[in-house]
């Protein structure tokens, strides 16, 4: 079973200072309500966070969601980028090989995220791939064997399609390949990742 904790901190232009940047770089994991976890191929805890406008302090959770995925998750997606973004796990793709999981980072190419990532595309020459001959980042972050733990950190700039308001996102995925019986409230507090993959842009 693959367990993923997704932390997404959304912030405004005035929260780009070094004080807030330090808070973000230190905020790499949160606790888990293990009673919510159910047996499946991939289980994800999605946490959305934002800062208190009254003081400089760690971001607060304003939305928490737990989702189960079956084998249908193990795909590049479909041609409609918006459907892929909503049905899969944003900016990563998961593939299973026996007891190992390949975790890939890919640019979603959706309109509300103008910070497009181009460059290395592992499927560039694969005629059967959605990424065939696309100048779009699509590469393996790491492969997790049993009881291995990986972390992905990336950032983005976004624009609200309704009012054209700009804002930023700092995203962390903590990913572990383990049995459901090994899931604990503070399991990401207790060990360093075996792998860490970063995709950090210079956002202005």
Please provide a written account of the structure.
- The protein is mainly beta and 204 residues long.
- 8% of the residues lie in helices and 38% in strands.
- The chain has helices at 18-26, 81-87, and strands spanning 2-11, 42-50, 60-69, 92-97, 100-106, 138-144, 149-159, 166-177, 195-199.
- It has a six-stranded mixed sheet with strand order 3-2-1-8-7-9, with no helix packed on it.
- The longest helix has 9 residues, at 18-26.
Name some characteristics of this structure.
six-stranded mixed beta sheet; mainly beta; three-stranded antiparallel beta sheet; 204 residues; globular
Class inferred from helices and paired strands: mainly beta
What is the number of helical segments per DSSP (H or I, 4+ residues)?
Answer: 2
Largest sheet descriptor: 6 strands, mixed
Strand content: 35-45%
Binned, the helix content reads under 10%
Order of helices and strands: EHEEHEEEEEE
Oligomer: single chain
Task: Give a quick rundown of the structure.
This protein is mainly β and 204 residues long.
Give the topology, please.
Elements: E1 2-11, H1 18-26, E2 42-50, E3 60-69, H2 81-87, E4 92-97, E5 100-106, E6 138-144, E7 149-159, E8 166-177, E9 195-199
Parallel strand pairs: 1-2, 7-9
Antiparallel strand pairs: 1-8, 2-3, 4-5, 5-6, 7-8
């Amino acid at each position: 079973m693959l367990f993923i904790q997704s932390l997404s901190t959304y912030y405004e232009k005035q929260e780009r200072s070094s004080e807030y940047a330090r808070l973000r770089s230190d905020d790499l994991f949160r606790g888990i309500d293990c009673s919510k976890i159910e047996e499946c191929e991939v289980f994800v805890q999605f946490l959305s966070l934002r800062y208190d406008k009254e003081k400089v302090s760690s971001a607060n959770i304003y939305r928490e969601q737990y989702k189960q995925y079956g084998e249908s998750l193990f795909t590049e997606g479909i041609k409609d980028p918006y459907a892929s973004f909503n049905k899969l796990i944003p900016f990563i793709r998961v593939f299973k090989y026996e007891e190992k999981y390949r975790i890939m980072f890919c640019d979603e190419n959706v309109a509300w995220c103008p910070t497009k990532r181009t460059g290395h595309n592992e499927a560039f020459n694969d005629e059967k791939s959605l990424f065939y001959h696309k100048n779009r980042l699509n590469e393996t972050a790491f492969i997790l064997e049993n009881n291995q733990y990986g972390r992905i950190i990336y950032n983005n700039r976004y624009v609200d399609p309704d009012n054209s308001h700009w804002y930023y996102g700092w995203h962390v995925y903590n990913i572990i390949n383990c049995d459901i019986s090994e899931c604990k409230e503070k399991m990401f507090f207790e060990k360093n990742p075996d792998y860490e993959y970063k995709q950090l842009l210079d956002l202005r």
